[in-house]
Design brief:
Blueprint lengths: L7 H9 L2 E2 L3 H9 L1 H9 L3 E6 L4 E6 L6 H10 L12 H20 L6 E4 H8 L9 H18 L2 E3 L6 E4 L2 H5 L2 H30 L1
Antiparallel strand pairs: 1-3, 2-3, 4-6, 5-6
Length: 209
Amino acid sequence: MKETVPYSAVLVRLLKGPLYEESRQDWDLLLRHRAQVDDWFAHVGLEVVIAEHDGLSFVRRRREQGDAEGEREREALAIPELVARRELPYRLSLLCVLLAEELYRFESSSADESRLVLSLQRIRDLILPFLPKTTNEAKLVNDIDAQVNKLVDYGFLRPLSVGSEEFEVMRLLKHKIGPDVLKESLDRLADYARSLVAGKAGSAEANDE
């Protein structure tokens, strides 16, 4: 019988999702065996990202810059994907971008707080200006809350307690939405917001005639 490697618990944790520094025992094991852990995941086409300054680690597709030949080889091998690439719907993508912006702003301006916590109402208020107006506000709120629950499932938000309407915005989000992607997305949102304003102005002029 093969012996279990000393870092097997870390492999299992990372296959399930992000590993945070607060899980002290597994985090210490990861730091102690990072080379072996990365080598293990390399065999299945993945790499381990260890962001010590953010106290988190996760796995993603292995990225080798300038390695076009290697990319073709991986495609030819048809390695099954262990990390799903999700195509998020518009509202969910929008919410991710807005929360990432809040997280970047928080990290650049807050010296006393170590984590960003937002109420459910605050999250609703972030996205509402970018959604079409509706007469069924209750349905819209329920839909936003459903998107929030999905972000909890994805590990981007974490409720402070069971049933809580306060959520910690996890730093994993900024590793999924880098500054360049964020800026491009915010520019698009700004264009959309301007189009909404222009549309309202046009409607007002039409009503005045």
